[in-house]
Specification:
The chain is α/β, with parallel strands linked by helices and about 525 residues long. The protein is built from 23 helices and seven strands. The chain has four domains: about 40 residues; about 250 residues, SGNH hydrolase (Rossmann fold, 3-Layer(aba) Sandwich), CATH 3.40.50; about 70 residues, Alpha Horseshoe (Serine Threonine Protein Phosphatase 5, Tetratricopeptide repeat); about 100 residues, Serine Threonine Protein Phosphatase 5, Tetratricopeptide repeat (Alpha Horseshoe). Strands 1-2-4-3-5-6-7 form a seven-stranded mixed beta sheet, with helices on both faces.
């Protein structure tokens, strides 16, 4: 009797399990079916834009932002005998603020062209502002159908800017999307669009706080993700017989002070007071040129509030002034590492780049240690404004330095065969003179960049230097706008008067430019019109 009762009960459990399994699978199946259908009908391209060809020779391609196709101007079928070089990265690779011609990709194309290569060489710059390594991998995968021969990877500055990532790893369920999207290679319409709902939150959180400390519930840290994606790019290249040049990332150490120290966090009122006294003592000792006292006060400050980036930067400058070069070098690096504004590459990412390179056992994978090259080409081996515009973006000379070293690697390793080797001595001034737009307008573009990011003193300094050699209406106009921002109305009036004269007494043009670029000053510029035009 007992067995008769047990049998249907056992069958019932099996049936229930099967039924529940089916009921669980059906919604997942329907979701995947609908999601994939939407993905096919409305493919997600993020903000990748599309590749556009720069006019003339050499053959330079770059991302034209705001379009909905990728590689639109680039032929899928590579012409016979053509070598295609793809460069990947963020705004530095893109060439901010100079664009394609002023980027290291543009200079590389110029150098190769001047060496008369045996093959036609196309340089395709896929750099995109704020793109992290995840986007670089997406672009690398997308480029395969265009038969690339060489990858150049310059990435590492944007790993904490999660709101700009194509994947938005932290958008929904932390890294669940990242895991599905990247490691299972699941391309989702729903997940790719849900991330937009969270972008504002991460814009507020990420720029000033460390992802490693604030998002400790991530399945992986930013470093782990960087290592994973870099290895995936390596696999893509090896599978498709693509040569790779992997670059380390330098940054401005000497002339870019930390933005955010957050030194008061976790301190009691009493400790804050003690730290402020120690900081005051350190600065007083520096002003009196007393190195020993400055170091003692700095050590006291660090014992109370370790990781005070601004104080470390100040003591680094003092050591440099006193001729303690090695100590200054280490202190500048430490100040950069302590800066809580995560815009300059952290040392751990360069360590990962070197680690990935050291694990490679084939000859078509080469490391270009740009960090060491910048150190070698900087006073006291501490990079500053000699090679940088700001904290991480190279100036024209900095871009050219990267390009010249890349050209040496390409020629030395016979990735590209050339007729003229020029003894591999490529001089920046020689190439700059050949490029009229960059030679004449680059400094004005640089000034405009500094104004746009709010560094008015630096922009004013560059304008003054520029006006010692040249007299351009735009320089006077930009200076007038800086003076208006500083509420120096008489100075602004004088510079607008100079602008008016250089524009052939055309005040309407001044009004149009002001309305377009500085609308907040439009009414003030109108007030100046009558007085300037009636002189």
């Amino acid at each position: 009797m007992k067995n008769d009762i047990d049998k249907p009960l056992k069958f019932g459990i099996k049936k229930t399990v099967i039924y529940m399994s089916i009921m669980m699978i059906i919604p997942i199946f329907l979701f995947v079916l609908i999601d994939k259908g939407l993905y096919i009908l409305f493919p997600y391209n993020g903000e990748m834009g599309y590749i556009k060809k720069a006019p003339g020779k050499p053959d330079i391609y770059y991302i034209d932002r705001g379009k909905n196709k990728i590689f639109a101007d680039l032929q899928v079928n590579k012409p016979k005998g053509t070598i295609r070089i793809f460069t990947f990265g963020g705004s530095t690779t893109w060439g901010l603020p100079y664009g394609a011609e002023g980027s290291f990709s543009g200079w590389l194309a110029e150098i190769i062209h001047s060496c008369k290569p045996d093959n036609n060489v196309e340089v395709i710059n896929t750099g995109y502002p704020s793109a992290p390594i995840a986007t670089v991998r997406d672009y690398a995968e997308a480029s395969i159908s265009f038969h690339p021969d060489i990858f150049i990877i310059y990435s590492g500055n944007n790993e904490f800017l999660l709101e700009n990532q194509v994947l938005q790893e932290a958008a929904v369920n932390k890294q669940f999307i990242y895991w599905l999207r990247r490691k299972l290679k699941y391309n989702s319409f729903v997940f790719n669009h849900l991330d937009k709902l969270y972008s504002n939150y991460f814009k507020k959180k990420q720029i000033y706080k460390s992802a490693d400390s604030d998002f400790t519930d991530f399945w992986e840290t930013a470093s782990d993700r960087f290592y994973f994606e870099l290895n995936e790019i390596r696999k893509i290249a090896k599978k498709n017989n693509i040569k790779v040049i992997l670059c380390t990332i330098p940054c401005n150490l000497r002339d870019y002070s930390p933005i955010c120290s957050l030194w008061k966090q976790g301190l009691s009122a009493s400790d804050v007071n003690k730290a402020e006294i120690a900081l005051k003592d350190m600065r007083s000792a520096i002003s009196k040129n007393q190195l020993t006292n400055a170091e003692k006060a700095y050590a006291r400050l660090c014992s109370i509030s370790p990781g005070y980036a601004q104080a470390t930067f100040e003591i680094a400058n003092f050591h440099l002034k006193k001729g303690n070069i090695i100590t200054a070098q280490h202190a500048f690096i430490r100040a950069k590492e302590e800066d809580k504004t995560l815009v300059r590459v952290k040392e751990r990412f360069n360590a990962i780049i070197r680690k990935v390179y050291n694990t490679i056992n084939y000859n078509s994978f080469i490391l270009l240690d740009v960090q060491k090259i910048y150190n070698k080409n900087s006073p006291f081996s501490i990079p500053g404004n000699n090679l940088f515009l700001d904290g991480m973006h190279p100036n024209l000379k900095g871009h050219f330095l990267i390009a010249s070293e890349l050209a040496k690697i390409l020629i030395e390793n016979k990735f590209i065969k050339v007729t003229i080797k020029n003894n591999q001595k490529y001089l920046f001034d020689d190439y700059k003179k050949k490029n009229k737009r960059l030679n004449n307008d680059a400094i004005l573009e640089t000034i405009g960049y500094f104004i746009n990011i709010g560094r008015y003193n630096r922009a004013e300094e560059l304008i003054m230097n520029y006006l010692e050699k040249f007299d351009h209406w735009l320089a006077h106009f930009d200076l007038a706008m800086i003076y208006l921002k500083k509420n120096k109305l008489s100075n602004a009036f004088n510079e607008l008067r100079n602008t008016y004269a250089l524009l052939g007494n055309n005040y309407n043009q001044i009004l149009e430019i002001t309305k377009e670029t500085y609308p907040e000053f439009y009414l003030q510029v109108i007030k100046f019109e009558k007085q300037i035009t009636n002189e």
